[in-house]
Amino acid sequence: xxxxxxxxxxxxxxxxxxxxxxxxxxxxxxxxxxxxxxxxxxxxxxxxxxxxxxxxxxxxxxxxxxxxxxxxxxxxxxxxxxxxxxxxxxxxxxxxxxxxxxxxxxxxxxxxxxxxxxxxxxxxxxxxxxxxxxxxxxxxxxxxxxxxxxxxxxxxxxxxxxxxxxxxxxxxxxxxxxxxxxxxxxxxxxxxxxxxxxxxxxxxxxxxxxxxxxxxxxxxxxxxxxxxxxxxxxxxxxxxxxxxxxxxxxxxxxxxxxxxxxxxxxxxxxxxxxxxxxxxxxxxxxxxxxxxxxxxxxxxxxxxxxxxxxxxxxxxxxxxxxxxxxxxxxxxxxxxxxxxxxxxxxxxxxxxxxxxxxxxxxxxxxxxxxxxxxxxxxxxxxxxxxxxxxxxxxxxxxxxxxxxxxxxxxxxxxxxxxxxxxxxxxxxxxxxxxxxxxxxxxxxxxxxxxxxxxxxxxxxxxxxxxxx
Amino acid sequence: xxxxxxxxxxxxxxxxxxxxxxxxxxxxxxxxxxxxxxxxxxxxxxxxxxxxxxxxxxxxxxxxxxxxxxxxxxxxxxxxxxxxxxxxxxxxxxxxxxxxxxxxxxxxxxxxxxxxxxxxxxxxxxxxxxxxxxxxxxxxxxxxxxxxxxxxxxxxxxxxxxxxxxxxxxxxxxxxxxxxxxxxxxxxxxxxxxxxxxxxxxxxxxx
Lengths: 468, 207
Ligand code: SF4
What we know:
Chain A has helices spanning 6-14, 39-47, 78-94, 109-115, 147-156, 181-192, 207-210, 214-222, 238-244, 253-264, 313-326, 346-349, 352-362, 380-388, 391-398, 448-457, 464-467, and strands at residues 15-18, 24-27, 30-33, 58-61, 97-99, 124-127, 141-144, 158-161, 165-172, 200-205, 231-233, 276-281, 288-290, 298-300, 341-344, 372-375, 401-402, 423-426, 442-445.
């Protein structure tokens, strides 16, 4: 009997050849592109006099550089304008489908592809962005690539890659009230470390994962890369199929039935052989907040920032750097640390369910006067759905600014940036030094519900006090 | 940034150069090249912006600013170097500053493949040896001659084996690291694969 994981099956299905150097040539079923990592790839195609091999397998949108306040063209930032124009020209020239601003389908590439039904089980998906791991939530094998590989996918629809090992992360029991997928994944990264996943694909499984909605599963797989794993995935189930059904690019009619039959056959075999298995008890996890400069430096809301002596020699080095940068003290409580900026958005937590949860916390409450708070929906669809539900009003009444979709202060390539050493409570995925646009800016990662709670109190707070 | 710099092409078998060491674990690609420098449609001018914020914070004392490192080309780092964002701008910025090879305890996956794809071999060594090299450098310049065929590095008074994935090593010595043409050779196999994949026919709504 076969003992293959879903990863093995999808990999083998897409393997084109074994290359002389020892890596595999892998067919990419869906290629997503955006404005930041594609222009040089198109440039290289031109230099090498090559065409796009299967233009219908590539889909484009614009997300990283778009302003979230005023999106009228030309953009005020001429470099940003040049980037979007370059993408427009490249898509036109190579006949690539492009979801531009105002199309109703623009947004962060990892929010857009699932909501359009482009992301499907059993595919290989690549994009010049490390959070491509998000799409693994549907049982696809999805990973980030660099610009030279974007060039290779455009030219050949394949890349050269070494097969990854597979670690199963088995999540037992279920998350408690007020604890979300973000807390679970921050907890996992903290337990395993930010480089444990190097060379691995992470398979998330177990009762706690089965109970999650598709959007929560995306949050988990999205942050696989923060644990070092290039790819994270979850075996598809009924929730996966019903999420995809009727989406714009989902298979229709007979194709739907055929797709469903195939998708149902796609999962890790019962006795799959994993390279490693880790168990996590989801019921023990508290709302989790980062205190340092890597996503692995996190603690539960009622815990204290670790003392240096409690850490392994390796972790100590980064912790010392974090203490110096963050200006927090070992042993200090994370709760009640004042925050100045609150950001809800990103491909980790900028989906409709994230906005609903945050709005529920914010309803009839006011953002602290010391806080600048803004919400950036992950896509035009998310924004429209939120407006239909009146969520935008709840955000605005509470004192949040309501913005246009894009990556925004997740990486601060537009004008949304921290200033000086401001502390932000952020629903995004990276708390690296300088990540949010100021070389001394300080980022605390947490769930969108926790960002909402921090916005109201003006300091890191336990959201469970708001929802119970 | 070295003005005479040209990106590598073809076979890479030997790299000789002065080491520059950068101490710290988990140095992410946002630090190697902050996001504001990604607003570009080519990589040419990234060299001068490498580690921009770290360098600014250190006021001229960052290894990449020190006069004695000006001609260095072999970067020596610690563990999980290049984690975070997939931006190829990071290795491109290093390359355009003058880095031709990197030696470290460990590298993040995407950063590693980006380096291979642009012709920067990444070698690993034990933590102890890395620290020895990094200390050695404090005393005097360290010039290394790296032989990719033998995975050997030697200097005046050091001689050691470097670890590199066998597949990567082969790609460098054969020139295959520049992957597009190798991939294109299998054109027929690619087309076959495309027609055989179960989902291609369900996805009639893609375009
Ligand atoms: S939201 Fe942030 S992490 Fe996600 S694609 Fe945009 S910049 Fe990258």
